[in-house]
Structures are given as C-alpha cells and as structure tokens.
Amino acid sequence: MSAQVLSGKTMSESLRLEIASRVTALKERGLTPGLAVILVGNDPASEIYVRNKGNGCTEVGMYSRTINMPAETTQEELEAAIEELNADSAIHGILVQLPLPKHLDEQAALAKILPEKDVDGFHLINAGHMLTGTEGVVACTPRGALHMIKSTGVNLSGKEAVVIGRSNIVGKPMAMLLLKENCTVAMCHSRTQNLAEHTRRADILVAAVGKAGFVTADMVKPGAIVIDVGINRVDGKVKGDVDYDAVKEVAGWITPVPGGVGKMTITMLLMNTVEAAERMLK
Length: 282
Ligand code: GUN
Known about the structure:
This is Bifunctional methylenetetrahydrofolate dehydrogenase/methenyltetrahydrofolate cyclohydrolase FolD. Its EC number is 1.5.1.5, 3.5.4.9. The protein has helices spanning 8-28, 44-59, 75-86, 106-112, 124-132, 140-150, 171-180, 195-199, 244-247, 261-281, and strands spanning 4-5, 34-40, 63-69, 93-96, 160-164, 184-188, 204-207, 225-228, 232-234, 237-239, 253-254. By secondary structure, it is of the alpha/beta class. It has 2 domains: 30-114, Rossmann fold (3-Layer(aba) Sandwich), CATH 3.40.50; 140-262, Rossmann fold (3-Layer(aba) Sandwich). β2 (34-40), α2 and β3 (63-69) form a beta-alpha-beta unit. It is globular, with a radius of gyration of 19 Å. Residues 95-98, 120, 140-141, 169, 265 line the site of guanine.
C-alpha cells in the first residue's frame, strides 16, 4: 500500500487563512503585524527563501521589510541593523537569514534580537524554553513538521521517534518537541553507528541530513510517519533527503519535496509573527 501524502501546500492553505483572519483582527485594533528579514550577501538559495518569506507576508496581509546588506558587512553593522529593528514599533518579527558569510558570528548576531521579536526561535532564551518545555517561540521548521505529524491523528505518546540530523535549527528542537509529545526519541547523526537499525525502529522518522535520497526504503519501518526536511538541489531540481518513490511504498505517511515541510516552515514563520504581534496587545 502506498503511503498517504502529507501535503504542506494543503495544510498551509488552511493555516494561512486562519493567520490572515488574525491579521485582519489586529489591523482592526490598529496594529499591522510586521516582519523584517535581514539578508547578508547574495547566496542564490537564501535569496529565494527570503523572497518567499516576503511573498508569504503579503499573502496574509502583513507588512514585510527586507534589509539587503552586502557580503562584506561587519559584525557591528549587522548588530546595529538588528538594534534598529528591535526599536522599530512597526516590526514584530525579526529574522536573520542563515547561513551568514563566514566572517560573521551567527550566535552573537542572534543574541542581539529581542527574544519577543525572535520569530525564528533561535535566541538562547527561546532555545532554553524549548529545552525546558516552557512557553516561548518555537523554531519554524520543527513546528511545521510537528503539525504535519499530528495531522495523521496517530497517538504519539510512547512511540519511537528518530531524528536524523542534530542542527540547532531543526534536529535538536525537533527532538525536544517530540519528547514533549511523550515519544521515545533517538537523535542520529553523521557519527551514528548502524543507522538503519535505529531508523527501522522509528514510528516517526524525521530526516534533516542535507543529502538527497539518503533515507532508503530498507531503512523505514512499514507504516511509519516519514517527514522529509531536506532541500537539496540536484541537476536543477529540488530533492528531499528521502528516496520518495521507494519509501512511499513502505511508509504509512510521507511528506513530499517540494510542497512538504518547506512550505510549512514559511507558514509557521507567519504564525510566529502574528503571535508576536498579538502579544504586543496583551
Ligand atoms: N536558513 C535555512 N533555514 C532557515 C530558517 O529557518 N531561518 C533562518 N533564519 N535561516 C534559515
């Protein structure tokens, strides 16, 4: 039996309708939610992501501002731009597009963003909330992935979850969210021995590796929920970390690439921004 496809496109459509109506309600109270995205340099993939974020804002009626800074921007200049946005009452969410050029200190820059405007959830305060399971801003990709996992209706409590990849952006927060859902979580990575032995136990398998087609059908438990976070460019096409055609014959549910988690990441960024704006009125 072929897996059910979890469409990020379909899920995003209904979530974005909800976000748009919350934006309208805020506007009626005199507040237009605003998102600022800082892009340093001209990495072509980052330029596409940033454009998509701006388009997402327009779609739901939010204000968006993109700050393009040259590749040779200094740490001081970047941090000054962040401070300016922290003080700007038209801006409720600030995002510094990653990766930054090598000479810049990513963690130091992220630490400058006001935690309440940190719609990426990357500030140490929000990372700490994630670790302790307390209320804070949840990183967009794991938040979107969890929404897709929950949409299956499967009771997650006590299930085996395996996350491949241990990045601060996806792997670590994803593992924390699944732990909060009472899953038994294993985090696998490039040094993991006998990877397939872990992945074959997974009722929920999240691939955030950055290698096209890395997860093959023999690594997947029949009926599993398979979430593909990978966005890899191969011969001009976008491919996920999962060998989609083969794995969909084994899995119970699967996310496509494109049209899966990537779409949900931007939707959750919009959700985090509208929530940040709503907090201003509380
Ligand atoms: N680069 C790749 N993914 C992300 C993300 O979710 N947020 C930011 N700021 N940069 C990214």
